[in-house]
Amino acid sequence: MTPRQPRPPSARPIDTRAFDLLSLTMALVLGLHAPHLPWWLAIALALILGWRWWQRRQRIGRVPRWLKLPLLAMLTLAVIVQYGNIFGRAPGAALAVGLLILKLLETEVARDVRVGISFACFALMVALLFDQGLVATVVVALGLLPALATLRALEPGQLPAPSLPRALLPSLALTAAALPLALLAFLLVPRLSSPLWGAPAQDQARTGLGDSMTPGNFTDLLTDDHPAMRVSFDGAPPAPDQRYFRAYVMWHFDGRSWHRPDPRYAPSRPPAPLEVASSVQYRISLQPTRRRVLPMLDVPLQAPAQATQQADREVMADKPVNDPLDYIGRSALRYRLQPDLDERSRRLGLSLPADFNPRTHALAAQWRQRHGSDDAAIVQAALALFHNGGFRYTLAPAPLGRDSVDDFLFDTHEGFCEHYSSAFTVLMRAAGIPARVVTGYQGGYWNKFGNYLLVRYSDAHAWSEVWLAGRGWVRVDPTGAVRPERVSLGAAAAAGDQLAWYRNDWLQGLRNRWDIVNRWWDQGVIGFDALRQRGLLTPFGIRDADTATLGVLLAISGVLFIGIGLAWALLRRQPRDPLRGALRELERKLARKGIARRPAEGPQHYLSRAARALPGQREELASLMRSYLELRYAHDEPPTEPLRAFQHAVRDFRIVDVVK
Amino acid sequence: MRDLLQRLQRRAERRLPALTRYRRPENLPIELHRRRIYIVPTGFGLGFSVLLLVMLVGALNYSNNAGLLLTCLLGASSAASMLVAFRSLDGLRLGHIRAGHAAAGQPLELILAFDSRRPRNAIRIDLDASTIAFALDGHASALVKLTLPTEQRGWQPLPRLRVWSSWPLGLFRAWSWLHPEQSVLVWPRAETAGPPPQARADDARHLRLHRGDELAALRDYHAGDPQRHIAWKASARHENLLVKDFEQPQSHPQWQLDWRQLGGLDNEARIARLARWLNEAQVQRRHYSLWLPGNEIPGGSGPLHYARCMNALAQLP
């Protein structure tokens, strides 16, 4: 055996504890990224991670190069096959996580670990680009703990290591101590008003409502439980059956789908006239949709800032909603919308594709004959048909053929809001009543702790509007005729037991209540942008805090925190000397009688002087002096029992005034 | 590069003692306090701050507030680790130093006793190119063994020691100088080969009982008795430590080592030869006495006697 040169500490293989912690960090990063990685890649990386961990326990050493290089090539290839390139958020993240796991294969010395941990911290932040919800952020922040613990474990010369979970505690304490500074920096770091380079594609936004409607295509939406928007009202919220949020108004029917008029060809017209009897003001926080439409309660009076109102009182933002958006709206609850119908709208509201749905046309003609010119009676007849005709509300209806409305009305008899509103509108048009389809959200959960209405994607809804002479456009919700709970209680109640197990009642209730925390997080943390930051210091008299002000404040408060930290670092608890303390007490008592200890006077001289001055207590003072001298000079450390006796004696010492 | 830096440092310390806070040797105990602890980021710390910057710009660019919060948390934790690094040295106390024995050219063992009122981790001491890491549990003092290279016999002042720590995250390095005012005595180097001492003729008659391999009796322990002679089993039954007394008919005569006999040699050669004789006598467990100018050591044997002789030899002018 040849003698080895002693290697420098940085080149020595790391111990098992550090490697375990590093593997734990990597596993956490992989777990956080797993939801948006291709499943086969996630599993393959997890297997590599587990194998390497096991292999390092058996034998310390790097994985040979002939194994590492093909794995690297396979990873790059896999990412390119999956995503087409290696740039962009999703492929970049997949590549980063893959490289991180492969880095583990060659990690043997402290330097490798430090590189790996730095990269893991970066990968943790990348995970937040995919989901910056409260839970995700907290989990990612907890991911810092094993990372910091790994760095700790690298330092040589430590006290015996505690168990693995307890090894994380000091890191927790460190991050907890750093939290105030972190929050302050978060508040004061100047935000960019525009990105330095291309902002990422916001494909994490849910699409929400589409601008066309085909009966049956809401199903995905109706099972999506994520919040679509949150609404808080000035004053009392409207009754549940008035919580209709209008997004799109659809006129064109091609036999299968409903469409909006193409905005490129429709001439822009002023909003339809509106007579208002009562109105309500509210504030909506909309989740990103990547679309321009802003849902508004019922019929909005005017558009919020940076949005315009269309002819049908749809509200469109100037730019697609890529970030959470807050806006204030004012809507009419009792109103007359477009009391005088112009000829163009009447023609549009009555048009139907030719040669479709003959049985529906026949039924409508039959009603028209029976009720004469009484439009309201025909509406009632249609609602009565839905209510009594054996219709069923289901999220999984049978497919429909070419004459979709005929099939639905006379054969399948099952469907959800899209089917009912579509069929109802076609019936009305066939009977000669102008009608249109409106989509949006209906219902929502009233969170009484936060006083806001939580509207989920599953609250998406479609209903109809018919134009009646003298009343204008009147909202008719044919789904309500079939399933009144849909309107009064919401989508989940209407769906009954068709939903997955995790949406049962109490769990849903819990989720609804928990939503207040999400709301607070979304508004307070995620939505804290450059604009809100500028208004941050208004309570302190700074109206428009610009970047320079924020920078100065950040510096000042950073210095303040460093000062606090230094005070802690410099804090030295002087070990208290109990014997000295007891003597001080005795000195105070004697000083009250005018026998003060002189600066250069030793305890023996001083106490003898006191004994002479107080002849009545000479014995007592002499005994105190003896025990003090013994305690002080006979031992290195005063023994406990005699020390306590001395302290008691000093406490019980009273100076008796001698009347001379 | 490294040499150049070290030379620059030495030059700077000589020229600018105030700036470089060059510390003169000082008496033990030495307690580290804030005015003599310095902190700089390590290479890893610099790299890590670049990473933090990248994370910050990324989070700001994508206006990802959760990412920004994470970056702030990581940055604040790093900053807090600087204070922890400082605190791991602050209040550290070097109580005393015990030096071993070594001949010139051999490494000399130093034992440094550090104590502290609170536990400390990962404190390191640099001496020459070697680094020792140790921890303190806050109760007992930590004994740190260092080896000091020696060159020539006589009193050798202790070099300046760098005590440092990059605890807890390796991002910052806190360090301080320890320059204790203490010297260690280095024994002379023995010559490799030479004649044996001239034995007096009558020495052979002085055969008497001497420490040997055969167990004669048990007696009380005296300071200086070799540990391997302690009769542990027997001692367990008594209050005092007992030592096995060995006896052996002395086979070697007593040596009288005398400076004056080595007339033809210069001083250092004399010392080297005497040192070799002393070593041989010690190995052969002989009885010997030593005469040096101004110092006469009567006959004796054993490690204490040996050390006394060597010390006297080492201190010769």
Task: Name a few traits of the molecule.
heterodimer; A: 4 domains; 6-stranded antiparallel sheet; 5-stranded antiparallel sheet; 18 strands; B: 317 residues; alpha+beta; 3 domains; 4-stranded antiparallel sheet; 16 strands; membrane (chain B)
Kindly summarize this structure in a few lines.
Chain A: This is Transglutaminase. The complex is a heterodimer of chains A (660) and B (317). Chain A has 660 residues and is an alpha+beta fold.
Radius of gyration of chain B: 28 Å
Q: Tell me, briefly, the overall form of chain B.
A: elongated
Low-confidence residue ranges of chain A: 1-6, 201-205
Strand order of the largest sheet of chain B: 2-10-9-5-6
The overall number of domains of chain A is 4
Global shape of chain A: elongated
Helix content of chain A: 40-55%
Rg measurement of chain A, Å = 39 Å
Number of helices of chain A: 24
How is the quaternary structure best described?
Answer: heterodimer
Look at the helices and sheets of chain B and give the structural class: alpha+beta
* Largest interface by Cβ-Cβ < 8 Å: A-B, 60 and 57 residues
Number of domains of chain B: 3
Report, as a whole number of angstroms, the end-to-end distance of chain B: 40 Å
Order of helices and strands of chain B: HEEHHEEEEEEEEEEHEEHEEH
Q: How is the biggest beta sheet of chain B arranged?
A: 5 strands, antiparallel
Number of helices of chain B: 6
Mean pLDDT of chain A: 83
Structural class of chain A: alpha+beta
Keywords (chain A): Membrane, Transmembrane, Transmembrane helix
Pfam families (chain A): DUF4129, TgpA_N, Transglut_core
InterPro entries (chain A): Bact_TGase-like, Papain-like_cys_pep_sf, TgpA-like_C, TgpA_N, Transglutaminase-like
Domain Transglutaminase-like (chain A): 409-480
Topology:
The complex is a heterodimer of chains A (660) and B (317).
Chain A: H1 16-33, H2 39-58, H3 65-83, H4 89-105, H5 110-130, H6 134-154, H7 164-167, H8 169-188, E1 212-213, H9 219-222, E2 227-233, E3 244-250, E4 252-253, E5 258-259, E6 274-286, E7 296-297, E8 299-302, E9 307-309, E10 315-317, E11 325-337, H10 343-350, H11 358-371, H12 375-388, E12 392-393, H13 404-412, E13 414-415, H14 417-430, E14 435-442, E15 445-447, E16 452-456, E17 460-468, E18 472-476, H15 478-482, H16 484-488, H17 491-495, H18 505-526, H19 530-534, H20 547-570, H21 578-591, H22 603-613, H23 618-633, H24 640-652
Parallel strand pairs in A: 12-13
Antiparallel strand pairs in A: 1-5, 2-6, 2-16, 3-7, 3-14, 4-5, 6-11, 8-11, 9-10, 14-17, 15-16, 17-18
Helix pairs in contact in A: 1-2, 1-4, 1-5, 1-6, 2-4, 3-4, 4-5, 5-6, 6-8, 8-20, 11-12, 11-14, 12-14, 13-14, 21-24, 22-23, 23-24
Chain B: H1 2-15, E1 30-31, E2 38-41, H2 43-61, H3 65-89, E3 93-99, E4 108-115, E5 120-127, E6 130-136, E7 142-148, E8 154-157, E9 161-165, E10 172-178, E11 183-186, E12 209-220, H4 232-236, E13 242-249, E14 255-258, H5 267-283, E15 288-292, E16 295-300, H6 303-314
Parallel strand pairs in B: 14-15
Antiparallel strand pairs in B: 1-3, 2-10, 3-4, 4-7, 5-6, 5-9, 8-11, 9-10, 12-13, 15-16
Helix pairs in contact in B: 2-3, 5-6
